[in-house]
Amino acid sequence: MAIADLVLGTMYFGTAVDESTSHAILDAFAEAGGTTLDTANCYSFWRSDTGRGGQSEAVIGRWLARNPGVRERLVIATKVGVEPVPGGPEGAVEGLAPYVIRREVERSRERLGIDTIDVYWAHADDRDTPLEDTVSALGELVRNGAVRRLGASNYATWRVDRARALAKARAVEPFTALQLTDSYVRPRPGMPAATDHRFGAVSDETRDYLDAHPDMEVWVYSPLLRGAYDRADRDLPDGYDHPGTTRRLDALAATARAVGASAGQVVLAWLMHPERPVRPIVGVSDVRQLRDALEAAELVLDPADRARLDAAG
Description:
By secondary structure, this protein is α/β, with parallel strands linked by helices. Helices cover 39% and strands 13% of the residues. Helix 4 (131-143) links the parallel strand 4 and strand 5. The mean pLDDT is 94.
């Protein structure tokens, strides 16, 4: 475990989190040794007066311009596919047609002010575009140097595997990362996880696939369930209301007392186990919250603590 394994989520930078605060968070993250930023071309259209995204990328771009030299030690990840269609029907998004991918990667690079995007995520599967077209267009970005690495977010596992097979057949860069939601407590079967995406949660099938494909890694969004572990005013989503959650929360509270940390910090440390590290994406709205997350990245759970957590629920 290390601070370098933690990913700073920047979803609300430039909207719910103002630019000054966003830059202070970025400063503190970089100064502490943080390396990875995660954003998207659609962040955060639902908080914008225009109904369009791009604010987060633009805030990061202005911060990079103010801090020459910092770019070389950062991994910058962004996404394509979920930006609303201007003037389109409610809920219509841009998707992953090749022309969209080529257009949006240039817009993202311009907003970020960078030549190369380190990780480019297909934000959600587009079943209306042939998968081979999406795979080829994304592979083209790597071939021409616009992107270094590719990932799939909110994809069904079988679609990821098919995309990787298509990439191999076409001799282009495959997906080597997944971005999904996961946490210490889990929803009961048949109930939705803390995501709006049908295939947005880590499942046993996901874990099995990752075990069989060591070149793949997983980045986890909303690992702290929007603060529900530590904030009395934040309830767990309904799908998490079952006896297994009760037992897990009891084990979590006992472990937090034993190690002198908050419940949320223990969750992050538990996720970042060195045997199969998960990269949690932490979204924060101030520097204090960031420091809590950075402390969690350095928290080491001893075997007894981890055994108590693993056995519960």
